[in-house]
TrEMBL record:
InterPro entries per UniProt: NLR-like, P-loop_NTPase, TPR-like_helical_dom_sf
One GO molecular-function entry: ADP binding
Protein name, as recorded: Kinesin
Organism annotation: Cordyceps javanica
SUPFAM superfamilies: P-loop containing nucleoside triphosphate hydrolases (SSF52540), TPR-like (SSF48452)
């Protein structure tokens, strides 16, 4: 046996040992004692956090994650602000995955730094017992990549949490020889990767697609409230809780902080005390949000305070792109909504007055090397560079490119949001607060506060009437700026802002506020510049103008100011300077106004306009019109026909005409105003005045049922408003609702639905679900769903609105009650009788308990309730009792013929009919009908009768009784009498007309036929009222139809029109068979004519439906009513009174037939196949399903 010899030891420490002649190799790793083969573990979850029992589901986010990560090699990224709950969503998803896939690996890697990622990779390697991991030079990322790529190792999910820095995954030093960590993340079909990050650009790069991005924002109000309730437990208060989550922008980490703070200090702390302290000042708010709450499910290196969490992002942005951090700092001082791009990068940052600012402030010790001075110097250098450079376009584009990159970075970190207009931005209020706190820590808060004043002043619009909407849009930012204290360099800009706001307040008629603000600004200006500075004197003159508007001449204050200004100007300015002469003119005007205000003074005209508006609200239209015409005449003379005030009064007058149903005059006046505006050089194209005129014209067209013209105008206005002010502006949203409504009226339901849905989303985001404007939109959209035969969608909308409105405003709220009634009607239309009955009962019970009659009177639900098919006698009794109380209240407070009082009376009559109290209902209707005979209208009839009688007598005397002109006057007088209801007198006159035509000629003239037709109608009306002369009326109608056919010829429009009207009268006389023949003749004849009036066809269908109903032909009646409804929708639109009436008749019949069908179903031997009711119900079902 040979001795044992060691031939060699390999470089890896393995020795080959020879024993005897046999070549037996024994391998041993002296450097690694862990190289023994290890048994592969069963897949498990490597999750460092426990499941959260307080987790709140966030819409469909978990479903979105599952969709992306469920794909082969799927990747998804949760992107959002720090503290919005990205990690909590990832934790919950990991547990859901573990529950569903027991054989899957779940790995969690904290990805904040490269070291933490590598540490996570090593932990995974140990968990899966990765072979070779203990070797000194083992490449753990590569080994892990290989293992993960091997499908034999099973499915896996890797969560990269807090991956906020691209450099961690993509940044390596070239000399190190390392690969980017991102390259070690495999795209194998057996695995998926979920990332949580604040950086959207990084998320896109890591996942490879924008489609893989799942944006996580704050919770909804409901989610946030539920989350707070879970965290606070017994300390939760619902009403105050809603205020707290709103104040915290519904951000989960901030809510958790607040709950932790309150619990730690209870009972000395509560939601109420926390809110009071939070709202006291920004300093207190920042202190509360710096509280580090206990949170087990956040990485130990991450702060549990929202302030510190966000400041990490701010520091990262500053190190990566300082200009973006500066932009964020500037934006934190604006109001958090509608931050205008124009104020963030103004077109011109330096003007000639800046030179004097630099000269006057350069030696001031306070401003030595001050940031504001540096800013002006930098602006001056940029201007000089642009003026001296031939490549000024390149410099400008370079600046714009830098701004866009800054905006993109801030958006990627979800710190700002771009409005749909693309020219405005939004921020969370808490992000603004955290940014200011961050600036304070670096002592830069004052620098950006002054920059905010400076940039905002540069972007302020010119003080002109056509810029009113732009001012309204920027007022929230202006109000913040004027409350700040400017440094000396910024005084001029701050003063300019005060001047602009003062002008706008004056423009709105708030002269007292305008005067006070300007006085405050002038005092600050005087301290720095002296009381003889040009701007100070100009401001004093403006104060006098405000005093003039407030009629304060008699106190002598304005005179004293002007005298003081004039004295300084005469002493400091050249003789006869423009400024001095202007002040002299103002002083002379002031003296004139002290003598008399005069009827043509602007204040007098304002008072007259206000009085007219009051008369308009009182429906005193004649008096309002008289005043508006006076004001318009004076304004045309003093201001000119195209002045803003003149055009405004023209629009007020057009509104008045519309209210009086004088639509032609309203349209003509609106077109005049539009022409004057277009011809004037004082206005910009498509300014506020132009929009007002166009809006008024669109309203006039809609009032006249010219829905197509109205829609075209509203769509044009919507495009302009969207471009000018963005899609979320108040004006834009109002016009958008008009567009959606116009589409609905034209029967373009799909387009209307899409527009309403888009509008609803914006209203919810802007005002919330419970706001009355959102509620109004929901009601309109629910009607569209009904028209599209999608009642379930309408029901869901109304239920959601009712829940939201009830939780925020309670049950004793006008919109809540209105929504309940709408929902009850919806239940009724969809045959859900029990739900409908319960809802009506709830509404009536609530109203019965309300003692405020004025509030009850103001509710808009009574028309709907009085016309609804209530389900029990007790409901009708409750309704009648409430309406009786309201009616008594109105009669004591308002004139008896007030429109709303008359409406309440008719609603009470409807309730009495529901109780079968027919006599009471008839008495109320008779009384109301009498009151409806408007006195002024009656006087006009009397005057018409007087004039027509005078003309008739004159022509009788001059031309004779049988002259055609005399007979025509007699016919006109008969028509006046007929309209006054004096049928007997009218009948006699018509007979005289017929005799007169007969005496003139042996042939019947068209005038004679027309008079005979009118006579037939009157005799039929008298027969119905008196229940006598039925045979006479019937014979007269038949004979007149024959004469009309002989005169005009068979198959003419005149014959068919009279046949329809004759059929109507015969139906009222209960002669249904003959009535049906005449109306059928008219319907078929008119239907075959190209120029037939749709209104006449609709009238025929309505009559045929009623006649066949009376004849017992229910199937035929329902068919006619269906055609009637479809025609009215097509011709008139869904909102037309004829369509509404047709829809109500259809719903009434459908409901009655449904009820009858239920009763028949209980009869074992009911003849279903021959029963008219059952057959008609089957037809209704078939048509509704179509």
């Amino acid at each position: 046996m040979d001795p044992v010899s060691v031939r060699d030891i390999t470089a890896d420490g393995n020795a080959r040992i020879h024993v005897g002649n046999s070549s037996v190799t024994h391998v041993h790793n002296y450097a690694d004692t862990h190289d023994q083969p290890e048994e592969a573990p069963v897949p498990f979850s490597l999750m460092p956090f426990s499941r959260d029992p307080d987790f709140i589901a966030r819409g469909d986010i978990l479903d979105q994650i599952a969709t992306h990560c469920g794909q082969a090699a799927g990747r998804a990224a949760l992107v959002g602000l720090g503290g919005v709950g990205k990690s909590q969503l990832a934790i919950e998803y990991s547990y859901q995955t573990r529950d569903e896939k027991k054989d899957a690996w779940i790995f969690w890697v904290h990805a904040g730094t490269r070291a933490r990622v590598e540490e996570g990779f090593r932990a995974i390697a140990d968990a899966v017992k990765l072979p070779g991991r203990y070797k000194p030079k083992a490449d753990i990322p590569q080994l892990l990549h290989t293992w993960l790529s091997d499908e034999r190792n099973g499915k896996w999910l890797m969560i990269l949490d807090s991956a906020d820095d691209q450099e961690v995954f993509y940044g390596v030093e070239k000399s190190s020889g390392q690969r980017p960590l991102a390259s070690y993340l495999p795209q194998s079909p057996n695995g998926a990767i979920l990332v949580t990050t604040r950086d959207q650009a990084f998320a896109v790069r890591l996942t490879g697609s924008y489609k893989s991005i799942i944006k996580v924002g704050p919770m909804t109000a409901q989610e946030a409230l539920f989350f707070l309730e879970k965290k606070l437990g017994a300390l939760f208060e619902p009403d105050l809780g809603a205020e707290l989550v709103s104040a915290l922008d519904c951000i989960p980490l901030a809510i958790n902080q607040a709950a932790s703070y309150i619990q730690a200090r209870a009972p000395r702390s509560s939601i109420k005390k926390y809110l009071a302290e939070f709202r006291e000042s920004e300093k207190k708010s920042a202190r509360l949000l710096a509280h580090d709450a206990a949170e087990l499910r956040r990485d130990g290196s991450s702060s549990n305070a929202i302030m510190k969490t966000w400041q990490i992002s701010f520091d990262h942005i500053r190190s990566k792109q300082p200009s973006a951090a500066d932009l964020l700092a500037l934006m934190s001082f604006f109001d958090n909504q509608s931050i205008p791009e124009a104020a963030l990068q103004p077109e011109e940052e330096y003007d000639s007055d800046c030179d004097s600012d630099l000269e006057s402030n350069w030696d001031t010790e306070e401003l030595a090397n001050h940031s504001s001075m540096k800013r002006l110097l930098e602006a001056k250098q940029r201007r000089d560079t642009i003026y001296s450079s031939d490549d000024d376009d390149d410099l400008s584009s370079e600046t714009e490119s830098g701004f866009e990159e800054d905006i993109a970075l801030l958006r990627d970190y979800c710190l700002i949001f771009v409005c749909e207009s693309g020219t405005k931005f939004e921020m969370h209020r808490l992000v603004q607060l955290a940014t200011k706190k961050w600036l304070a820590s670096s002592k830069r808060q004052e620098e950006f506060k002054q920059m905010f004043i400076y940039r905002l002043a540069l972007s302020a619009p010119e003080a002109k009437g056509q810029n009113e909407l732009r001012y309204r849009d920027m007022m929230s930012h202006f109000q913040i700026a004027i409350r700040l204290r400017p440094n000396k360099t910024n005084l001029r800009f701050w003063f300019h802002l005060c001047y602009c706001i003062s002008w706008y307040m004056g423009f709105l008629g708030q002269y007292d506020k305008a005067k006070n603000l300007l006085e405050k600004a002038l005092e600050a200006w005087a301290e720095r510049k002296g009381r003889e500075h040009y701007n100070y004197l100009l401001g004093q003159v403006n104060i006098v103008s405000y005093m003039a508007e407030m009629d304060k001449y008699e106190k002598g204050e304005s005179e004293a100011i002007l005298l003081r200004v004039l004295e300084i100007q005469e002493r400091t300015l050249p003789v006869n300077s423009d400024a001095t002469l202007s002040t002299m003119e103002d002083l002379a005007y002031n003296y004139r106004q002290q003598a008399t205000l005069g009827r043509e003074h602007r204040t007098t005209l304002s008072c007259m306009s206000r009085l007219s508006a009051t008369y308009f609200c009182q429906s005193r239209y004649d008096e309002a019109e008289k005043i508006d015409l006076q004001v318009l005449s004076i304004q045309k003379k003093n201001c000119g026909p195209s002045h803003y005030d003149t055009l405004f009064t023209m629009m007020e007058l057009a509104t008045l005409y519309t209210a009086q149903v004088r639509d032609d005059e309203a349209i003509e006046l609106s077109l005049q105003a539009l022409q004057l505006h277009s011809a004037s050089c004082e206005f910009e194209d498509q300014d506020q005045t132009w929009i007002r005129v166009k809006t008024q014209l669109a309203g006039c067209y809609q009032s006249q049922s010219f829905y197509d013209k109205s829609l075209v105008l509203n769509e044009e206005i919507l495009r302009i408003l969207t471009a000018k002010f963005g899609p979320d502006h108040d004006e834009t949203l109002m016009v958008m609702q008009q567009v959606a409504d116009g589409l609905k009226r034209l029967g373009r339901y799909e387009e209307s639905e899409n527009t309403f849905i888009l509008l609803l989303g914006r209203l919810k985001a802007r005002f919330g679900l419970a706001h009355h404007r959102t509620a109004c939109c929901i009601k309109q959209l629910s009607k569209v769903y009904v028209y599209r035969r999608q009642p379930s969608k309408a029901e869901v909308l109304l239920v959601e609105l009712l829940d939201s409105r009830t939780s925020t405003h309670g049950l004793r709220d006008d919109w809540t009650l209105d929504t309940m009634v709408e929902l009850a009607k919806q239940y009724q239309q969809s045959q859900q009788s029990n739900k409908s009955s319960d809802m009506f009962a709830r509404v009536l019970a609530i109203c019965t308990e309300i003692n405020d009659v004025d509030f009850l009177d103001g509710l808009g639900i009574w028309e709907s309730l009085s016309t609804a098919c209530l389900h029990s006698q007790s409901q009708f009794e409750d309704l009648a009792t409430i309406l009786q109380v309201i009616l008594t209240f109105r009669k004591a407070k308002y004139p008896p013929d007030d429109d709303f009082t008359l409406n309440r009376a008719l609603q009470l009559a409807a309730a009495k009919e529901g109780l079968a109290q027919w006599d009471d209902a008839a008495n109320i209707c008779s009384e109301t009908l009498q009151l409806c005979q408007d006195k002024r209208e009656q006087e006009q009839y009397d005057e018409a009768r007087r004039l027509q009688s005078f003309v008739l007598e004159a022509r009788k005397e001059k031309l004779g009784l049988e002259d055609p002109t005399t007979l025509s006057s007699m016919h006109d007088l008969a028509m006046v009498l007929e309209e006054q209801g004096q049928l007997a007198e009218a009948e006699e006159l018509y007979r005289q007309v017929i005799r007169g035509h007969g005496a003139r000629s042996t042939t019947r003239s068209k005038g004679s036929i027309w008079a005979r037709q009118q006579l037939a109608h009157i005799v039929a009306r008298l027969a119905i009222e008196q229940e006598a002369r039925v045979e006479e009326a019937t014979e007269l109608l038949r004979n007149t139809l024959e004469m009309t056919e002989r005169e005009y010829g068979h198959g003419t429009m005149e014959v068919y029109n009279f046949a329809a009207l004759a059929g109507w009268r015969l139906m009222e006389l209960d002669l249904f068979e003959e009535a049906a023949k005449m109306v059928q003749l008219a319907y078929e004849g008119l239907g075959a004519m190209d120029n037939a009036d749709d209104g006449e066809l609709h009238f025929c269908l309505m009559l045929l439906a009623l006649i066949r109903d009376w004849q017992g032909d229910l199937v035929g009646a329902v068919e006619m009513q269906r055609r009637c409804l479809h025609m009215s929708r097509r011709v008139n639109g869904s909102e037309h009174p004829d369509t509404i009436s047709a829809q109500e008749r259809w719903d009434g019949w459908a409901g009655w037939l449904e009820q009858q069908a239920k009763e028949h179903a209980e009869e074992a031997d009911h003849p279903f196949e021959s029963c008219q009711t059952c057959l008609a119900r089957e037809c209704v079902g078939n048509w509704e399903s179509e």
